[in-house]
Specification:
Elements: H1 2-8, E1 12-15, H2 20-33, H3 43-50, E2 53-58, H4 62-83, H5 89-105
Antiparallel strand pairs: 1-2
Helix pairs in contact: 1-4, 2-3
């Protein structure tokens, strides 16, 4: 959970429910209904009433969060380089692998 807090650079609060997906769906449903129909106007309002949060909070470490931000910047560069056509090395590697497969199948 500490890693999540550092990567997202935000506090992570631990829910007290063993059925978090169902509870989350119910919370969003109550917000969708709105206060005029017996629900809530904001997610925060719904959480205060519907959720059983534990008193455990993971706070991001600012230095570690900055490192994750830098890593993400590098990831974006690599993604664009390999994934957006700047460099077609992945397609060339895929073609080589396909030729090798075909070579072994046609023996």
């Amino acid at each position: 959970m500490q890693i999540y807090a550092d990567v997202l650079d935000m506090d992570i609060k631990i829910a007290g429910s063993s059925q978090n997906p169902a509870l989350s769906s119910a919370i969003w449903g109550a917000v969708a209904a709105g206060k005029s129909r017996g629900g809530f106007d904001t997610v925060d309002e719904a959480i205060k009433v519907m959720a059983n949060q534990q008193n455990i909070v993971y706070h991001p470490d600012p230095d570690t969060a900055r490192i994750y931000d830098k890593l993400y910047e590098e990831y974006e560069i690599l993604h664009d380089y390999f994934g957006r056509g700047t460099n077609d090395v992945m397609k060339r590697l895929k073609d080589l692998a396909e030729r090798q497969r075909n070579k072994h199948i046609n023996r």
